[in-house]
Design brief:
109 residues; mainly alpha; single chain
């Protein structure tokens, strides 16, 4: 697997896309949240890459991206806030989304 060379914006888009798929359904409201964070071209580029990756590859890329961009506690807090906004955007915060949130907090903090 090649190491991604993402901008911070691309990394955020990838992480949000990954979390949007935690319940195997990318709702339009979730897509809109991601597009509110990045431009449409970035969203499409990252979406195409995401579609090629399996869960293991996605997690490795996310962990590496967070390291590469030297995320500190404030950056992580901002990221986790964005993830919660994404999860609540469709009016539900189901058990799979909750588990994904807790898992990402654990591996990224």
């Amino acid at each position: 697997m090649q190491k991604p060379h993402w901008t911070k914006e691309e990394l955020v888009a990838y992480i949000l896309l990954f979390t949007a798929h935690s319940n195997f359904d990318e709702a339009n409201t979730e897509k809109n949240v991601i597009i509110s964070k990045v431009d449409m071209q970035t969203f499409q580029k990252i979406h195409d890459e995401f579609d090629q990756d399996n869960d293991y590859q996605s997690l490795q890329k996310i962990i590496q991206g967070v390291k590469d961009h030297n995320y500190d506690a404030d950056d992580l807090q901002s990221l986790f806030t964005d993830i919660k906004i994404l999860f609540f955007s469709d009016g539900e915060y189901d058990i799979m989304e909750r588990n994904m949130f807790l898992y990402l907090k654990k591996i990224l903090s």
